Amino acid sequence: MEDDTAGTARLGDAAADVLRRNDLGHLTVAAPELYPHQWSWDTAFIAIGLSHLSVSRAITEMSSLLTAQWRRGMIPHIVFDTAPGYFPGPERWRTAVASDAPAGVQTSGICQPPVHSVAVARILDQARRRGGADRRAAEEFLTESLDGWLAWHRWLATSRDPEGSGLVEIHHSWESGMDNSPRWDAPYSRVDAGEMEPFTRNDTTHVTDAAERPTDAEYRRYIWLVDQMVAARYDEEAIRRTIDFRVADVFASALLALSSEILAELAAGAGRHRDARDMEEIAARFRSGVIAAVSPRSGLAQDRDLRTGAWLPTATIGGFAPLLCGGDVAVVRRQRELLLGPEWCGHPDLRHAVPPSTSPTSPEFRPRQYWRGPQWPVITWLFGWAARRRGDEALEGQLREESLRQLGDLRFAEYYEPFTGEALGSRSQSWTAAVALDWLA
Ligand code: 9WN
């Protein structure tokens, strides 16, 4: 990016323009063609970006996601709008078979990582800074929506960790938000997709090169798991008994710890002290779960295949979960060094020194393929934001500067080739534009 005011203004204007173009009024689509619906964790990042343009529009974004909350507390990973063309759509998810799906709105039947309270807190900060009607609206929104966010966290802490391990169990890699990351290769190698209703993918038609997306073999397994959840009528216990993919996700666990800590602060600020204590307990349990998953050898946190009990040591960005939730000073210090070192951001061939999704030194690294190597601006932002919260302004500053240089191409790509800096996946991706706006604020 040009290091001047004009360049900054141009980036801010272009980012705001992406969000305006992707705005359907009540929700912002994750991307114009590839993802024409509302996604759960995208919504949180998008609302953070929107809060710099309009506090009330940011609130609408979060509220419309909450109207799709399932009755036991789950926030679904997709809320479908009417646009055709995304597969799997509501007809494959068939959530009407579930006993707790919401009425009057069509959703998928799984969840995504809980980053929503980060957005609620950010909206509130912005609104308090602006004062007046914005402040009143954001405080009212917090009061009205708090029970929804609390129910979401409680659902994750019980339904997705019934034994109190401190790690969130997922039943599909879509729930991790990092769909084809090599994190999931070993558990997927044990998913044997059998006879199934035929389907046609649409995603590969919306990218320049289909090889930037997951493979057909991966998609068969993705849809196989969807069909298995439908057969279990989305009953969590039945799913645990029957599904071919059960993994403890260390990155989602760190986000649950971090977000619960924030939700505790929000609840305490609203005078809800018992709820605040509950959230602090959840934060402590999942923080410990994440720290216990750190490999002393690699220094990275590991996911765990719950069907075999095996830890999953692949060197992906998911391993830096402790940098999000903290919990052990020595672990965090070692991870910070690792992140900036030659296997990650300090790799000499990187165009921009931001975290690749898989270490370029790992045998599983693929520089152009989705979560197998490319850099995702939203993930860079997340690490920057968590660093700042921890008081590590130096790390945040470095990630911010490099990320802004990457985003200076004004493509707002979903992900970037780490060596060439080429934009990959979708363009005009909403959450990429949103994090640009937040970096600039
Ligand atoms: C499946 C919307 C979503 C992100 C995910 C990203 C990708 C969907 C897909 O797009 O996943 O949920 O169809 O590939 O992996 O993190 O939320 O941007």
What descriptive keywords fit this protein?
441 residues, mainly alpha, Glycosyltransferase, 8 strands, globular, binds (2R)-2-(alpha-D-glucopyranosyloxy)-3-hydroxypropanoic acid
Walk me through this protein's architecture.
The structure is a single chain. The chain has 441 residues and is mainly alpha-helical. It has 16 helices and 8 strands. (2R)-2-(alpha-D-glucopyranosyloxy)-3-hydroxypropanoic acid (9WN) binds next to helix 2.
How are the secondary structure elements laid out?
Elements: H1 5-21, E1 38-39, H2 40-50, H3 55-66, E2 78-79, H4 90-93, H5 116-130, H6 132-159, E3 168-170, H7 185-189, H8 216-231, H9 236-242, E4 247-249, H10 250-269, H11 273-292, E5 303-305, E6 311-312, H12 321-325, H13 329-340, H14 377-390, H15 393-407, E7 415-416, E8 423-424, H16 430-440
Antiparallel strand pairs: 1-2, 3-4, 4-5, 5-6, 7-8
Helix pairs in contact: 1-16, 2-3, 2-5, 2-16, 3-5, 3-6, 5-6, 5-10, 6-10, 10-11, 14-15, 15-16
The structure holds (2R)-2-(alpha-D-glucopyranosyloxy)-3-hydroxypropanoic acid.
In short:
By secondary structure, this protein is mainly alpha-helical. It has helices at residues 5-21, 40-50, 55-66, 90-93, 116-130, 132-159, 185-189, 216-231, 236-242, 250-269, 273-292, 321-325, 329-340, 377-390, 393-407, 430-440, and strands at 38-39, 78-79, 168-170, 247-249, 303-305, 311-312, 415-416, 423-424.
